[in-house]
Amino acid sequence: MEFIELLKAIILGFVEGMTEFAPVSSTGHMIIVDDLWLKTTEFLGQGSANTFKIVIQLGSILAVVVVMWKRMLSLVGLYKIDGQEYSKRFNLLHVIVGIIPAGVFGVLFEDFIDEHLFTTETVIVGLVIGALWMMMADKMGPKRPTVTSLDKLTYSKAFKIGLVQCLSLWPGFSRSGATIAGGVMMGLDHKTASDFTFIMAVPIMAGASGLSLVKNWDQINPDHFCFYVAGFISAFIFALIAIKFFLKLISRIKLVPFAIYRLVLAAVLIIVLFIM
What are the pLDDT digits (tens) for 133-155? Predict the structure, then answer.
């Protein structure tokens, strides 16, 4: 594999890692960068290229596990909780309840999404609608959130946030944008909504990556192994940086600045694709 191809994998890993946990849609950004610039489908093939975009998200997921390892281990009973921060009120059932809706819809519509929605045009739609959803959340959410830590999250709210997460199956909408905004509307503060979003991402994205690998295994060339590894490592490193930065940022600036960025990006893409 040539150096330029490995560089493309690293660039896509950078895009994935830096955008996965911000409410701007990492999949949408990877599709945009790939379609308009890198064009990895030319040497990977369409099926393998789509699978790559999903699989390197495992690098970002590993970053979540590293950053939040105490909370993760506590959910499966491998870490004894002491103190208020990691009380047993938030448990694995909250996560299961939260991921069921998107898991079911993801399995049902995976083929349709892979075949029809991995385009820059559909990403533009997702960027715009997702931005409006985030703006509405900041406008309509309670001024004084009632859920200020994961330990105050009810199973009912976890399930409702899981339903909202289904919106992110449309590329460009953003999983974190959908769930953080949904959580804010239900009384969570931005930090707590972000924490729950990150934790739910681990089983959701691990399952999506595994399913995509199994279904497209025959389209993946062993010669592309280094490409996948480079993208995975790149996504992991940059996601580590992005997670810590984002968790500090979201409590200060809320969702509207990210929504404005999405609208500007959508406008630029419309100009580039349909006007110029």
Answer: 999 999 999 989 999 999 899 99
pLDDT at 81: 57
Q: 66-73 long-range CB contacts below 8 Å, 24 or more apart?
A: 66/240, 67/240, 67/243, 67/244, 68/195, 68/198, 68/199, 71/150, 71/195, 71/199, 72/199, 72/202
Best CA proximity match to 25, nearest among 228, 251, 178: 178
pTM as predicted: 0.88
What's the domain count of the chain? 1
Q: Which domain holds residue 117?
A: 3-275
Degrees (nearest 5) of the Cα angle 263, 267, 268? 120
